[in-house]
Each structure stands twice: as structure tokens, then as C-alpha cells.
Amino acid sequence: MNMKIHILLGSKSDSAVGDKIINTLKQFDIEYKLDVASAHRTPDRVKSLVEESDADVFIGVAGLAAALPGSIAAHTTKPVVGVPVSGKVNLDSILSIVQMPPGIPVAAVGLDRGDNAALLAVEICALKDQKLAKQLEEYREKMRRKVTGD
Amino acid sequence: MNMKIHILLGSKSDSAVGDKIINTLKQFDIEYKLDVASAHRTPDRVKSLVEESDADVFIGVAGLAAALPGSIAAHTTKPVVGVPVSGKVNLDSILSIVQMPPGIPVAAVGLDRGDNAALLAVEICALKDQKLAKQLEEYREKMRRKVTGD
Amino acid sequence: MNMKIHILLGSKSDSAVGDKIINTLKQFDIEYKLDVASAHRTPDRVKSLVEESDADVFIGVAGLAAALPGSIAAHTTKPVVGVPVSGKVNLDSILSIVQMPPGIPVAAVGLDRGDNAALLAVEICALKDQKLAKQLEEYREKMRRKVTGD
Amino acid sequence: MNMKIHILLGSKSDSAVGDKIINTLKQFDIEYKLDVASAHRTPDRVKSLVEESDADVFIGVAGLAAALPGSIAAHTTKPVVGVPVSGKVNLDSILSIVQMPPGIPVAAVGLDRGDNAALLAVEICALKDQKLAKQLEEYREKMRRKVTGD
Amino acid sequence: MNMKIHILLGSKSDSAVGDKIINTLKQFDIEYKLDVASAHRTPDRVKSLVEESDADVFIGVAGLAAALPGSIAAHTTKPVVGVPVSGKVNLDSILSIVQMPPGIPVAAVGLDRGDNAALLAVEICALKDQKLAKQLEEYREKMRRKVTGD
Amino acid sequence: MNMKIHILLGSKSDSAVGDKIINTLKQFDIEYKLDVASAHRTPDRVKSLVEESDADVFIGVAGLAAALPGSIAAHTTKPVVGVPVSGKVNLDSILSIVQMPPGIPVAAVGLDRGDNAALLAVEICALKDQKLAKQLEEYREKMRRKVTGD
Amino acid sequence: MNMKIHILLGSKSDSAVGDKIINTLKQFDIEYKLDVASAHRTPDRVKSLVEESDADVFIGVAGLAAALPGSIAAHTTKPVVGVPVSGKVNLDSILSIVQMPPGIPVAAVGLDRGDNAALLAVEICALKDQKLAKQLEEYREKMRRKVTGD
Amino acid sequence: MNMKIHILLGSKSDSAVGDKIINTLKQFDIEYKLDVASAHRTPDRVKSLVEESDADVFIGVAGLAAALPGSIAAHTTKPVVGVPVSGKVNLDSILSIVQMPPGIPVAAVGLDRGDNAALLAVEICALKDQKLAKQLEEYREKMRRKVTGD
Questions:
Q1: What is the helix (H) or strand (E) element at residue F119, kind and residue range?
Q2: F41: which chain H residues are within 8 Å (Cβ-Cβ)?
């Protein structure tokens, strides 16, 4: 059984963060798919993409009044990771993603932290995939060695 | 031809702000309707309420990651006024409503400023309603006198 | 009957945001006029421009302690849209425009969001102009296609 | 196979948020365990609790320089949810949990949002538990009805 | 020759700060006058009060998008002191008063600091009034003793 | 009788703001003097410069935990203008200058607003100097014309 | 050889934080002394208290534009701990104490964290006092047990 | 008896701040050692480095959710200085280091202020080292002369 991650970017201009997600995911045996869909400009597309998706985990990437992750979460009970994108204010996208109302959780990661969004999604998928779990351990071990330059 | 204002509260707990809106609107000859609908908990309800509404202006009231006004705006090209509701952070609801992405405008008013949301909606409606325009002038005159206690 | 939009920039240095407004308005059949007038340096000019204007909607653009939109609103009961201009602090112009006191509403849009200010003004004018309403729908449809690159 | 959630409170004074987590979890068929352990006062206890835990998902609750969720994440590759607790500053606990460095993700939820932390954890566990998945759907449906008071 | 201070409150609800100003001024031989006038609700009144005033120094007191001090400054080249009034956000009134654009200075004092606004005004007036200058020295000496409880 | 302005920069690195002050003062018939003195590195120098100065108004320029203006004010009952200098945080220097405790007022102007600090100082001095008062009026008139490009 | 800690409160109103410091210090064999002295109202007193003190470590407690710790540090090369006191803004006292300019360090602790200021001072003194070092270890052990309620 | 300072950088990318620390320490007769160790990526390494260190003072340097200084402090009762590193938000690392919970103090210095961290560490060590104490006095005197350019 394969786990799948569905990435939605709020705008093509968020692709630098999208690339960080993909570059991280590529280091794991995991399927993913990326779409561009705006919570504000194409709300129906967000809804249909989410409802028709067979993904196990969603990642929403958005800046400003970053509604996309919350909008994804509104249409699914699958876990949704939200990545705030940096801009002129930064507290806007961070707070718009973190401060979700009761009942509809979003898992916020740090500003522009596509890498961590990917890792969090892999951690979630690894709960039912031993191979992924092992790859995660190796990834972290590699990271440890990088800190100290060994 | 009658102008109509459709108020959506993100939650019943936003009713204090809702009351401010209604108390202000009651001073004008204008039709209004109030519904509770959450952008995150009932996104389809927001969509259908907005698409089926014959309102000229919408007012969305929400706290935290206040997505409701933007969510209304995503489903209409009618003017949408957004009222951030106060809480423990305040910058969250303000920025979530003000910092809308390009293409989908929301008219943000101040924190808990249901009164100003109502007045802005009336100002918009008054553009094609001479009676309302006159009532607005009288309202402002009364307000002026109140400042100085005359 | 023609709707008209009157744009006031607080300073010539705000012209980049002014250009965004005009470039957006040019895509609609709507009259507009642009003036430079400072709430602090030329308050009488703001007053006379506003009082003598036959505009249906005003747009005020200002940075720092961005008083211009509120100053316009003080002299009219027509709808006023306020655009905060970015600088070294950003929360200054945003809060100065959003946090208007009770009784004098301003419709705040996002930081440097001249495009959304224009769209909001067009949305307001479209309430009594079927042609504009249709152009807005087409504009949004075009925007939708642009999101997905169709 | 049973999924398990391990809740760590940074201090006994965080128990109000802990109660929100438990009250939410009790509505689902899911095992959980709660411990108090401080990242700063009892770092070894955090490490041993995490390393010896057979939990599938961790929830860390902390205020101020809320290091606990990140500290848990440092000792596991299981998903970690972080709940910032409110205080005199609020941006401190929010940013301390959201702004994790690359490589060690934490899933931040909103200020004092124990309920959403629980739901996010359940969503994650539900990926390999059909019964939980069904309970989540029912929970959300109930929530929808509550919004509109039906 | 007598120096005069003219205090303008943006709203009657700012009278607690107004009282602090007056209580401080009463300790000095200086004339003052207090009016309520709103930059947004009664802009013409602000203008006429300022232009017809024979005050040497103005003090403007306002909360939220605290435009009053800047509005006074727009109509005079006499020194204007601005007092931000506390509310739900606080950074709004502080930044709205401090971040004045080039050319129109306002002397901002701290949040709700009516006392300091009064002292600053007295300091300014004392430049051409030896008696006031002496009273200021005595006031400060008294304050010094109060710190240490002598 | 000549009025004098004494400018203190907290560091040589604040000289860009110092230049703005001087360039503005040069347009008026007013004496000024500039010194570099740090509230933290040379507190005794600040004290002696202030106590030995025959200035009518002081201007303190400082960034970060901008203590200089308050430190000047601690040693004189002459009016003190404070200019926060921009850096990586900005709210630090603004709040450090605005939020003075009761009893020791500082007149804060905007971030890097050396020009407004100079104008405020001139406004204060103009209270007992008709020529300066006239120059201020002319300056403002020139500024007005510049806004509109006349 | 006895280590000594000298506590300075910026105002009598900071005594709640002062009490936290003293209550913590009382648990250690260490001499301390407390004075009230304001950086702004009694700068000379701060200077003389510091210069005449035989303390090994200073603790400065202040709110608002909390200049006291920096002011102490300006007069000594002994370690100075700074405690920001909470108020209506909080970021003011925190940033005023943390953001010291190069050359004059202050050791900032958290908002109202008199307890941590005391502990930090004791840690510093314990470097040349084995008994204190042992007491610190015991204090921390007791704290550890308190976390888990053992 | 020689005092020793142990510097830990959270990441190699923090080396610019590390260099500031070292360049400052080099001006004093004091031993130091620098390691890279991440509170999140290599928590065990932080623990063992701290526990095996014979340093008198630790300096932790970190950005984002800057947990490193607190993490060091969790494993020692020696004084720990924390340096927040600048990034896209800045308030994140500042608050994560300043707002430590009761019982585990960290001495926070300003953003990127490696120089002050070094000086604070030297001040602490100088309490039992007359030579260092003298060097500190000379350093400060040199600094004083640099302010005024003598």
C-alpha cells in the first residue's frame, strides 16, 4: 500500500517553496503530486482537487492571508500541513495558518519551511510504512553528521 | 429597487460584533439578513449562501485565522466587508483579513468594528439610493454633534 | 450614468501603487481621476478635492501614519478605500488605515495592494452598472485560468 | 493494532490545555497517555519518555520559550504536534513552536488549541484505522450542525 | 506674556488621559484649555479650533488610528504633542502618532502618558518663562525624592 | 536672543540621520551644534554635554535600545526630541524612545525622521522668535507646493 | 570571600518583581541589597549607587522604555542582569533591555522573571563559591522533582 | 586558575556571529572553545558537550526557534549566554531566547550581538580574575575614546 502526498501551491509564485518540498520528498520512496490552486481565486478547484484526491497527507503553501491550508482542511479529515510563505509582513502568513479555529486543525510549519513540511508529511506516512520509517531514521542520521561536519 | 446586506458570522460566538452591525443597520432603511457559516467548518454552506444570495453587499465577521470574509469574496464579485474579531492575539484576525492576495479584494474594517462595517455597507448601497444617502448625512451630522456634546 | 473613481496619493512617492490601481482600472469601462494630496501637508486640498469631487468611490493611498484614507472619509459619506504603502515598519500604515474609529469607515486593502483597491472600487460601482458587473466576472474568470495556467 | 497518542505538558500549569486535548480525544476510540515533563527543567525525562514511548503521535504543550515540542521532535521521527500556551506575550510561544529549524518538523496548532492538537493527532492515526476515520467524519458532521444550530 | 496650552481629545472616552494632562498642568502656572474634537468625525472643528487658537503648544489625544495629533499639526506650525491612548492593539495608536511623514512633526509621548505630554508642553513653554522653568526644576526635584521615598 | 539646538548622536553610524537634521536646520536661521555621545558607552559625557549646554532644545538620535534621548532628558528640563534609528527590528528603537516613564518626557518622532526632529525643534524655538516662525510658515508653504508639483 | 548581589528597581511599582528576586535569593547563602533608583528620574543616584557598590552582580528591574539595566551597565564592568517588567505593551521593556548596543552587555531574562534573574546572578556568583554551586544543584534537583510531582 | 568559555553554534550558518564572539574574546586573556551542535538535530551532542565541558560560561548562538541556549542551560548550572541570530522574522529568535521559563535562566543579549555575548562572558569570568577585570576596564576606555573619535 502506497502513501501519497498532495501538494497545493496557492500561486505559481510560491514555487520556490514547492521546490523545497519536492527536493525533500525525492529523498524518500513516496508518491507525491503538485497542483496550483488558490483558496481565493479558485475555491472550487481546491475543493474538487481535495475531494477527488487519494492522498494521505496534504501540504498547502501560501503567503499573505494564507487561507489555502485551512481551505484544504475544510474539505478533508486527512492531515493537512500548512507552509507560510515569506513576504513584506511575514506575521500575516504565519498567523493566518497557525491560528486555525477549533475543529479544523492545520499543522503549521515555519516560514518558507517546505523542507519541514515534507518531512512532517513523511513522518505521518511512515506510521504505516516501515521502509519510510527506516529512511527517515537514515535521513536524520545524515543530518546529524552534517551538523558536526563528520 | 431595494439594496440588501447579507451578514455572515464565522461562529455564534461572534454575535456581539453581529449585534453592533445590526444595531447600526437598523438606523437606516435597508434590508439585511444574518447567517452563521464557518469558512472552515461549513465551507459549502458559505458557498451556497453567497451564491444564492441576492445581497448587494456582504459582511463577513471572523476571529483568529479569519478566513470567512476572503471565503465569501472567493464566491462573489459583490463587495465584501470583513470584520476582524478580537481575541488573544488580535494581529491574527486583522492581518488575515487585510492581507488578501491580488485579485480577490476584501474591505477590512477595524477590530470588532461591526458599526463601521455596517456604515461602509450602507455607504456602498447609498450610491444608488438617494434616501439612504440622505440618512447617512443625517447620521454623520448627529455623530458630529455627539462629539462636542451639543 | 457613469461611475467615477477618484484616486488620491499621499505623496508622489506612492506612484508605484498608484500605477497598480490605474493598470487595473484600465481593464474596465470606468472613469477615474488621480490627484496627489497629503492629509498632513495639504489638508485643505484633500478637503476641497473630496468635497468638489463627483466621484462615487475614493481610493486613498498612503504610507507611514497613513492618515489620508481616513482624512478623505472625514469629508464624504461616499465609500473610501485605503491602501497602506510598505516601508520600514509596515504595521504602521496597515494599522493606521484599518483601525479607524467608530463612525467613519475606511475599506482597508492589503499592503501595496493597489490592484485590489481598484477591484473593490469597481465591485462597488458595478452594483449599479451591469456592464461593469459583467466585466468583473470576465476578469475573475481570466484570473482563474491564470492560476492553473490553462 | 492500536494507535497511541502521548501528551507531554511542559508544566502542571498547562493542564487547562491538557484537559482540552483529553476531552477531545475521549470522543474517539484512541489510547492516550499524559505526562508532565519540561524541556528545560527535566530534559532527560523528556528524552527517556519519548524514546521509551510506543506512541504513534506526540503532542507537546508549552508556553513562553516553548521548547518542549521541538525537544520531543529532537528525539523521535514520529509526528509531533506542538501547542503554544497563552501568556503575557503570546507571540513568544507561537513563534517558538512554529519557527523550527530545517530537519526537525513540528506541527504547530493555534494558541491554547488543545482541541485541534487532539484532532490533528487523530487525523494522523486515522490513516491506518478505518474506525477512527469514520469517527472523524462523524465528529466533523456534528460540528457542522453545531455551527448552524440545526 | 502668558503661554497657553490647548488640549484636544479625539473623543470623550479619552478623558482619563485628559485628566492626567490637566492634573499635571495644574501644578504649574500655565493657562490651558480643553476641547473635544475628532479628526475623523469633526475635521472642520479641529481645523477651526487650531487656527483660531492662541495656544503656544497643542496636545492631541487619540486612540486607534490616532489621526488627531497629526491633524492638528497639519493646521499649525506651533509644536504639537501627541498622546496615544491604549486599547486592544496599542501598537496602532503608537505607530499612528509616531510615524508622521516628513514635514509635519508630532512629538509623540508614551501610551496613555498624559502626564508626560503635559510636562513636555510645560518644558516648551518654559523656554520663555523663567517662572515655569523654575517650577519644572522643583517638580523634578520632588519627583526625585519620591523615587527614593525621602 | 538666539535659540540653539544641540544634537547628540548615539554613534557615528547614526550620521545619516544626523545629516537629515542638519540639512533641515540649515534652511532656518538657527544655531546648532552636533556631538557624538553614547548613553551606554559614555554616560558621563552625555551628562556633562547636556548640563554644560546652553541649548534650548536637544535632539537625541539612537538605534536599538535607544536610550540616548531619555538619557538626555534625565539631565535637563529643556525639551528633548528623540529620533529612533532603523535597524533589523525597528520596533526596538521606536518603543525605547516613545515609551518613556512618567515624569521624564521625550518627544519622539518617526523612524529615521531627522527632518521632523529638526522641524519640531525649530517650531519650539519659533515660539520666541518671530523670524523663525515666519520661516516655518514659508517652509510649509513650499512643502505644500511640492506635494502638488506647482 | 562573600559574593554580593545588588538589586535596583526602576520604581517602587516594580516591587512585585523585586519580591520574586528576593524570595529566590533567600534560598541561597548569598548577600544582597535592594535599592530603588530610576535611570530617568535619578540618573546620578544610579551612577553613585553602582560606582560605590561592592556587588559582584547587579540586577536592574524596569518597565516601559526600560533603561535601568543598560544604565547600570554603563557605569560598571560587573555583570548586569536586566528584568523587563510587564505592562500594556510588553515588547517595549523586552526590546529595550535585550537590544543593547555593542560594547555594553546586559543579560536579559524574561518578562517579570525576577526568579530567573536571581538564579542567573547566583550561577555567576557560584563560579567562585563551591557552597553556592552545590546549593544551585540542589535547587535544580528540587525543581525537577516538582515538575513531576515526586 | 584559568576561566574558560565554551561557545556552541546551532548551525554552521551562524558562524558570522561566532566570529564576532571570537574576535571579541581574542582581545582578552581567556580560553575559549567553539563547537557546532544543534538542540534539535543533535540534542545528545549538546548534552554531552555541556556535561563534559569544564567551561565556566557557555554561549549559545541560534536563530529561528532558537532553543540552543535554553537547551545548554537545561544541562548545567553554569551561566549561559544566549545570542539570537537574525533572519526573516527576528522576534522569533529574540523571544525564544529571552522568554525562558522559571528555574532555567538564560542571559539573552541582542540580535546578532556576538560581541556583547563575549563581553558578558568575560565580565562574568573577570569576577575571579583581576587581570581580566583590568582588561575589561581598558577595553571600555578604548571604546569610550572611539565614540568621540579621540
A1: helix F114-126
A2: 140, 143-144, 147
- Identify the three-state secondary structure at position B34: strand
Q: Which of D90, D140, D144 sits opposite B88 (nearest CB)?
A: D90
Residue of F nearest to G101 (CA): F64
Per-residue pLDDT 10s for chain H (150 aa) are: 577 999 999 999 999 999 999 999 999 999 999 999 999 999 999 999 999 999 999 999 999 999 999 999 999 999 999 999 999 999 999 999 999 999 999 999 999 999 999 999 999 999 989 999 999 999 999 999 998 775
Angstrom distance (rounded) from CA B107 to CA B125:
14
Q: Supply the DSSP symbol for D10.
A: S
Q: List chains touching H (3+ CB pairs under 8 A).
A: A, D, F, G
pLDDT single digits (tens) E100-149: 999 999 999 999 999 999 999 999 999 989 999 999 999 999 999 998 77
Q: Which residue of F has its CA nearest to E122?
A: F79
- Select the residue of G102, G113, G136 nearest H113 (Cβ to Cβ): G102
Question: Measuring CA to CA, which residue among H140, H41, H96, F55 is closest to residue H8?
Answer: H41
Tens digit of each residue's pLDDT (9 = 90 or more) over E54-105: 999 999 999 999 999 999 999 999 999 999 999 999 999 999 999 999 999 9
Question: What contacts C39, CB < 8 A, 6 or more positions away?
Answer: C10, C46, C62, C67, C68, C70, C71, E67, E70, E71, E74
- 3-class SS at E98? helix
Partners of A60 in the β-ladder: A8, A82
| Chains B and D contact (Cβ–Cβ under 8 Å for 3 or more pairs) | yes
Alpha carbon distance D92, D64 (integer Å)? 6
Q: With a threshold of 0.95, tell me whether the complex ipTM lies above it.
A: yes
Cα–Cα distance between F122 and F133 in angstroms, integer? 8
Is C65 in Cβ contact with E98 (below 8 Å)?
A: yes
Domain ranges in chain E? 4-148
CA dist B112 to B58, B93, B119, C100, E87, Å?
A: 16, 10, 14, 11, 12
Contacts of C144 in chain A (CB under 8 A): 41-42, 45
Write out the H or E segment, with its range, that includes residue D95: helix D91-98
Q: Is E147–G64 a contact, with Cβ atoms under 8 angstroms apart?
A: no
What stretches in chain F show pLDDT beneath 70?
1, 150
CA distance linking residue E31 with residue E59, whole number of Å: 13
Question: Which of C37, C88, C89 is opposite residue F147, by nearest beta carbon?
Answer: C37
Q: In this structure, which topology does domain A4-148 adopt according to CATH? A: Rossmann fold (3.40.50)
Contact A83/A114 with Cβ under 8 angstroms? Answer: yes
Interface of H with D in 82-121 (CB under 8 A): 89, 91-93, 95-101, 103-104
Q: Do A147 and H88 touch (CB under 8 A)?
A: no
Query: Rounded distance, CA H53 to CA H5, Å?
Result: 10
Report how far residue B117's alpha carbon sits from residue H36's, in angstroms, rounded to the nearest whole number.
54
The H-assigned helical ranges of C62-129 are: 68-73, 91-98, 114-126
What are the respective helix, strand and coil percentages of chain E, to the nearest 5? 45, 15, 35
Q: Round to whole Å and give the CA distance between C67 and C60.
A: 9
Per-residue pLDDT at D147: 85
Are B18 and B61 spatial neighbours (Cβ–Cβ below 8 Å)? yes
Looking at CA atoms only, how far is residue E25 from chain F in angstroms? 12
> Is the separation of the CB atoms in G45 and E148 below 8 Å?
yes
Distance CA A141, CA A146 (A): 9
Backbone angles phi, psi at G80, to 5 degrees: -125, 125
**Cα separation of F42 and F59, whole Å?**
17
| Chain C residues close to A89, C-beta within 8 Å | 90-91, 94, 111
Cα–Cα distance for residue pair A136/A147, rounded to 1 Å: 17
Q: Whose CA is closest to C106, among C94, C88, C114, C90?
A: C94
